[in-house]
Amino acid sequence: MTGAVHIEIETRQLKLKEPFVIAGASADEKPMALVRLRQETSGGGVLEGLGEASLSIKSAESFEKNLDFLHNLPEDLFDDPTRIKDIADRLDRLERGCRPAKCAVDLALYDLNGKMLERPVYNLFDLEKHGVPHSFVTLCLGDEAQTLARAAELRGQDYLKVKVDSAFDLRLLEEIQSISGAKLAIDANESWQYDEAVEKLNHLAERVDLEFCEQPLPASKVQDQRKLKQAVPVPIYLDEAIITRQDVELLAESCDGINVKLMKCGGIYRAIELITRARARNLKVLIGCMVESSIGITGASHIAHLADYLDLDGSSFLAWDPFVGTFLHRGRVILPTGTGLGVIEKKHVQ
Fold first, then answer.
1. pTM
2. Tens digit of each residue's pLDDT, the chain (350 residues)
3. Which residue ranges make up each domain of the chain?
4. 318 near 307, Cβ under 8 Å?
5. Where are the alpha helices (DSSP H) in 206-349?
6. Cα–Cα distance list, 317 to 179, 297, 327 (Å)
7. What CATH class has 124-345?
8. What share of the chain is helix, strand, coil (3-state, %, to 5)?
9. Cα(first)–Cα(last) distance of the chain, in Å?
10. Looking at the domain that runs over 5-118, which CATH code has it been given?
11. Helix (H, G, I), strand (E, B), or coil: what is residue 287?
């Protein structure tokens, strides 16, 4: 027999090595909520599941709202921590949003369940640890000199994702590809309008071999997104527009693939639902991330076998990551050993 599950919530401030700049937003630090689920074992020990809530730097929803949601969870929510689907459904009935907070709970539950069963989380889904796709590494917005210098630093990476906006000089993409030798994707983070996207993507298709263009148009431009897919030869992946299973159904004819982020959809359980729905509509899948600690990155990496592409470099932007988990080596995704998520908290706190 095991004892009751108790939740503890902490806040941490994650400082970045340098400003993370995308179209319409930038940050040099960001808050995270750390969730600990603790359960006493029959042998007198304690199992601990770790979860994280980290919001997008573009989020219209506040960190404080997510934190308040976590602090006001029902006392009986974790009476049976093995019922992850039921807990996820109950959280959705309590609150439509706060998906990063729900992700923190989901991650902590999977971590705890894996430790209870003495199995890594990927093994709970009969997935493998090795042979997952290599990850993109992100090239943020900057001036021309910064951009090309960073591309040179990233020489040897298999995949680069370049952040762009309306002011970005697309001619740089040819130089970036030449300097880095990497396969490229671009991410406009909703910063283009329809006519602009048609012109730019048709122009790029003649000069640069792009894996895809991510979220070129504002998520609200549903009809334009459908037209754009038919008007350009570059594969279109949607990110900000895809949050729920219903979004996949609504926009399946408007894209070639979707970006699934645990923080955006509510955790591993909801991510698998999105991926399943996307596959049913013959869509490709990119598993991505926010700027977040190794808890979130590691959680996503446990389902990496379900993706065509990965973009899991979010923790690499941190000046100091409080946790050790999945890391990238020249784009290769290295999962930790151990049960549950396999994440270890560092002793020293900065």
1. 0.96
2. 478 999 999 999 999 999 999 999 999 999 999 999 999 988 889 999 999 999 999 999 999 999 999 999 999 999 999 999 999 999 999 999 999 999 999 999 999 999 999 999 999 999 988 889 999 999 999 999 999 999 999 999 999 999 999 999 999 999 999 999 999 999 999 999 999 999 999 999 999 999 999 999 999 999 999 999 999 999 999 999 999 999 999 999 999 999 999 999 999 999 999 999 999 999 999 999 999 999 999 999 999 999 999 999 999 999 999 999 999 998 999 999 999 999 999 986 55
3. 5-118, 124-345
4. no
5. 222-231, 245-251, 262-265, 268-280, 294-301
6. 22, 12, 12
7. alpha beta
8. 35, 25, 40
9. 38
10. 3.30.390.10
11. strand
- At 328, list the tokens: 């990238």
Rounded CA-CA distance 290/298 in Å is: 12
Is the Cβ–Cβ distance between 225 and 217 less than 8 Å? yes
- At 50, which amino acid appears? L
| Assigned token pair, 279 | 């596959």
- Phi first, then psi, for residue 91 (nearest 5°) are -60, -40
